[in-house]
Specification:
By secondary structure, this protein is mostly helical. The protein has one domain (2-208): MetI-like fold, CATH 1.10.3720. Helix content is 77%, strand content 0%.
Length: 209
């Protein structure tokens, strides 16, 4: 079970971090940018919240299928394919929550700090401290969405024992075999991981508040 839990955390954490690399700068552009194309990205984030995970799993599986467009990459049924699917699923969630967090902060603060002639590195530090709690919540939500994913994980990882089996797919397999004791153990482990992640996020939020 330890190996399954470790793989779940690794894949989901990687997906969350990669998603944040794309989603948070996008949110900053939406809130502080001036281009009219910001609306397009905001619509994409919002619409992506309802994106069915099985649709993402199907798209990734088709892309990396042996006869698919990128089948020669031999990525399907690997943790990398699972992380890619989770990243696509999580980007809209982190992006939308980041936009909400940034809009909730004082949007005139950058101009105020610039007017006070505060050095740029110090300005960035102050701005980051202002929005950090909201962004931490966005990352926690993204991680929770990623680690709880089962449909896309099954389609892109194949639930291979010792290679791509994660807590959610292991739970499905255990229920299918009527091994409810094992299923409850997997779910308990999953809930424990989320409790720890929530605790870390709350600690960081209090520190930055």
């Amino acid at each position: 079970m330890t190996g399954i839990a470790a793989l779940s955390i690794t894949v989901s954490a990687a997906a969350t971090l990669v998603a944040a690399v794309f989603a948070i700068p996008g949110a900053l552009w939406i809130v502080h940018g001036r281009s009219r194309l910001r609306t397009v990205l905001l619509v994409a984030f919002t619409a992506g919240l309802g994106l069915p995970p099985v649709a993402v799993g199907l798209a990734v599986a088709f892309t990396f299928w042996r006869s698919g467009p990128l089948g020669s990459w031999d990525v399907l049924y690997t943790p990398a394919a699972m992380a890619l699917a989770q990243t696509i699923i999580v980007v809209p969630l982190i992006g939308t929550l980041a936009v909400i967090a940034l809009r909730a902060s004082d949007t005139t603060l950058p101009m105020q700090l610039a007017g006070l002639e505060i050095p740029r590195p110090r300005r960035f530090a102050l701005l980051a401290r202002e929005v950090a709690p909201g962004l931490a919540a966005a990352l926690l939500a993204g991680f929770g969405r990623a680690i709880a994913e089962v449909g896309a994980a099954q389609m892109t990882g194949g639930n291979i024992e010792g290679q791509t089996r994660v807590l959610t797919t292991a739970t499905m397999l255990a229920v299918g075999r009527a091994e409810f004791g094992a299923a409850f153990s997997y779910v308990a482990m999953l809930l424990g991981i989320m409790a720890v992640a929530a605790g870390v996020a709350m600690t960081l939020q209090r520190r930055w508040a």
